[in-house]
Amino acid sequence: MAPEVAAAGGLPQGRGGRIGMLPDLTVDGIPAVYAVGDVANIPSPDEGTHPQLGSVALQSGAWAARNIIADFAGRPRKGFHYRDKGIMAMIGRGAAIAEVGKHHHELYGVIAFSAWLGVHAALMTGVRNRIDAFVSWGSDYFTEARGSQVLDRSDVARIDWDEDVLTDDEPAAVS
């Protein structure tokens, strides 16, 4: 589902509460408004919509910026073209699965795990962020220790996901 902000603007919504888009990433019926990422149903060539993935959000954001620049320069906008770089999922300690490349080659195990680490490190900004991530990943990989999990309302049997306001006599959850 789209974040609540998608509905707040009164724009046309489609599947998942996301804003209906045209191929050039403008809102259907409002050519001066762009939407990308998790709030947008970005049309794909197969008559569906692109999946809600970070890579789609990153590419569509850059594409929308180019179309905005084209608007200011008086040039025509171009329809969004997503370049599928594959998909990866971390499964566990040293285990992952990936489908990469034009022919969707499947990778498993340590090779996919290493590819996952490399791709995610490459997408980070700044050397410091990469170093911090590798230190954290190394610590997680080589130790069994995990941080404490604390629930300060142990009397509550289940989580009420709709709860959004605490009263003065209710303690806040510790994360």
Description:
The protein has 175 residues and is an alpha+beta fold. The chain has helices at 5-8, 54-73, 109-123, 127-142; strands spanning 19-20, 26-27, 30-34, 40-41, 86-92, 95-100, 105-108. The strands form three sheets. It has a three-stranded antiparallel sheet with strand order 5-6-7. The longest helix has 20 residues, at 54-73. The chain is globular and about 55 Å long.
Defining key terms:
4 helices, two-stranded parallel sheet, 3-stranded antiparallel sheet, alpha+beta, 175 residues, globular
TL;DR?
This protein is an alpha+beta fold and 175 residues long. 31% of the residues lie in helices and 16% in strands.
Describe how the helices and strands are arranged:
Layout: H1 5-8, E1 19-20, E2 26-27, E3 30-34, E4 40-41, H2 54-73, E5 86-92, E6 95-100, E7 105-108, H3 109-123, H4 127-142
